[in-house]
Amino acid sequence: MMYDLIIRNCHALIMPAGQRLEIQHNRDIVIDAGKIVDIQPTGGVDTGRAHEIIEANEMLAMPGLINTHAHVPMVIFRGLAEDVSIERWFNEYMWPLESNLVEEDVYWGMLLGLVEMIEGGVTTVADHYFFMDQAARAVEEAGTRAALGWAVFGDRGYDALTETAAFVERWQHQAGGRITTWMAPHAPYTCDDDFLKATVAHARRLGVGIHIHAAEEIGQTRASLDKRGLTPIQVLEATGILEAPTIIAHGCGILPNDIELLKNYSDHVGVAHAPKTYLKLGMGLTPIQALREAGIAVGLATDGAVSNNTLDIFESLRLMAMLQKHEARDPEVMTIPEALDIAFSGSARVLGMADQIGRLASGYLADIILVDLQGAHHQPLHSLTASLVYNARASEVQTVIVDGQIVMRDRHILTLDKAHIINEVNQSMARLARRVPDKRIQVYNP
Amino acid sequence: MMYDLIIRNCHALIMPAGQRLEIQHNRDIVIDAGKIVDIQPTGGVDTGRAHEIIEANEMLAMPGLINTHAHVPMVIFRGLAEDVSIERWFNEYMWPLESNLVEEDVYWGMLLGLVEMIEGGVTTVADHYFFMDQAARAVEEAGTRAALGWAVFGDRGYDALTETAAFVERWQHQAGGRITTWMAPHAPYTCDDDFLKATVAHARRLGVGIHIHAAEEIGQTRASLDKRGLTPIQVLEATGILEAPTIIAHGCGILPNDIELLKNYSDHVGVAHAPKTYLKLGMGLTPIQALREAGIAVGLATDGAVSNNTLDIFESLRLMAMLQKHEARDPEVMTIPEALDIAFSGSARVLGMADQIGRLASGYLADIILVDLQGAHHQPLHSLTASLVYNARASEVQTVIVDGQIVMRDRHILTLDKAHIINEVNQSMARLARRVPDKRIQVYNP
């Protein structure tokens, strides 16, 4: 029997559920029909039995990185809203800028963001934006994996909601199964209870989950308590959202009582953590430790590039780990194995894909990246895992495999024309950067 | 007349003191006798008048980065002390590990750290370590700039102190003026008052400054108050240290009263800020804003690679800026221009070199780096300065010039044999990683 692909002579990052992570040195990874079928000591598999061989030369092989919450096409506005309060960020910058959006922008922006993520080893992204047919088209071309939701505000009405449900139907399990779809109401402060309940009905009918912003920062939680006596998380429960698989974006304003409540939904509800955005917008931090102690999955995310500036999960991982130590004033919390557990199995759980991605093991999807840790800033390499969390850069990802297909090899993306994409986006810069007084897609007033 | 070097067609980061920073597009930078002599619109200078030309192709030219506090040779122990308390970090890891040090290790470790810093655009480092003749020899070979101090503990005695003063004399203004030297007593908690006073006498006699750890975190400040009723900063004043030019490393435990006190020395005392170390060791943060409001210089630093893991000033810059927003829960503080002011003129002031480095202007030393911001994660480049602070990676530095000499060109280091250095360090890994019970160079008990 022939295999599709063998990755020869890598060091493999192995993280069995509930056990110590380990680096297995000098391994061959056998891939067939889009899945990992075997991991053996180098030489243990006959390379003559593979259609294709990648020589890893002792690079680190690990599961493709997972970005559990982004607005990828927003890269087109990158750098346009710096050093402003969250209220101004929305009302004076982001929402006015987004009134410039045309469908084509989402296509090119999604492609550009996918280039950045492929180059940085991200193989799966949960994206939440507009004109999502264009995003899906881009993912199909890029060859990566995505969980896509068409964002909608309550004031757009029920027809708009129904259109986002139609998107869910059109693209669920498309692109050879690499695309899954989600309902994506914006947030409890922009969607009223009836709208959220209608979203739940669509999700139930279609058998999909719901990706939503909630309790993004403590001010939103306080405003919700003031206005209606419920926290945003309690609103998610009251409207039935939490009955569906749910990705809660940010949750920096989640209270201890919310965590008690979320415990009841911990088998299908997770929280996406995007620390760079929280620092830049002064939002505080998601209560990661308390969520995890309650059994609720936490994953890594980048949010959009207008707040996060990059779509770099290595950076999210490092910031997440360091900030937990900082907040606790205790360097012994959030150890390297725990940080990696969040990055891989945590993020996979948030997307409801814990049995498919985030792990190098037989039967898992062959989403694998090879990382070169030979740079001077890793030397001497006393600890490979410490270097992975605290020294590695996105630019050190050399090769990216998704669904058993090689998407980037030796830093060259095989599926997309990077120069053409950058050129297309650059053509639109002036138009995209315009802000017209009082023209915005929404008002921030949580 | 002929010039030594022209950098042709860069975008130049210009930061006139007390004025708005600006990007001057398409500029030629003229260099002669180690200094910047002119900056003109591209084409304004006859390139036939230069012995050498670097085509910048619209890369960003900026002053070489400055690392105001490091223990560069500690890279040889990188990754060996993770996820441990500060007390264990010193007593169970760092100080036992350093009992393995031989003079030769410092030479190779310094070279390795200089490779990392050159690749990351750092042209000047204030280093604080042992066997510093070896560090000086490495700097001489690397072609970079350094402010070197031989670290000493009080319990080593006055002869040891005198030896560190002899190092100061041997190397002051050597390597064509690229090396300056400093006295480097370890800290008030490891040097008693008489020892510190004797250090001041040496510094005064030799006309040099003092580089010292103080108030590294609030626990040290409290311990000092408990034991003797003075803060570490008050000890620096009482012993006369602050009369000399002083680099205070860390200062996360600096109190408001200390800042009032430091005001009186603000023309020659600065504080080195190494945020990655503080996060990883849960040390809190230097009160940057209050120090700067009091007119006291703050610069960026990396500390050693056993706590900081890398010697990456881009990373220090980004963390510094983001953490100030986070701590204040206010995204409008620590704007991009202010962050860059700290990175360049702030760091130069900390080293007492504000009229020599940290600025692209005629008469300044020609320490210049070229950074390529064309990667996908910078696109579209709506804001070059936002990208510099929030997106740029050390690996995007292409060319490094120090004292008018090209040290790295197109990512190839011209002065050092990188592969040989890494190989030499790797030979010693097992010996360096050994820890023998109760064998350590010092005990942490502030």
Give structural notes.
The structure is a homodimer of 446-residue chains. Chain A has 446 residues and is of the alpha/beta class. The first copy, chain A, has two domains: 122 residues, Roll (Urease, subunit C, domain 1), CATH 2.30.40; 286 residues, Metal-dependent hydrolases (TIM Barrel), CATH 3.20.20.140. In chain A, 36% of the residues lie in helices and 24% in strands. In chain A, the strands form two sheets. In chain A, strands 1, 2, 3, 4, 5, 14, 15, 16 and 17 form a nine-stranded mixed beta sheet that branches. In chain A, strands 6-7-8-9-10-11-12-13 form an eight-stranded parallel beta sheet. In chain A, helix 8 links the parallel strand 11 and strand 12. The longest helix of chain A is centred in the first third of the chain and has 17 residues. Chain A is globular. In chain A, 61% of the residues are buried. The model of chain A has no long low-confidence stretch (mean pLDDT 97). The interface between A and B is large, with 65 and 65 residues.
Which chain pair shows the most residues in contact? A-B, 65 and 65 residues
**Segments of chain A where pLDDT lies below 50 for 5+ residues?**
none
The description of the largest β-sheet of chain A is: 9 strands, mixed
- Percent range for helical residues of chain A? 25-40%
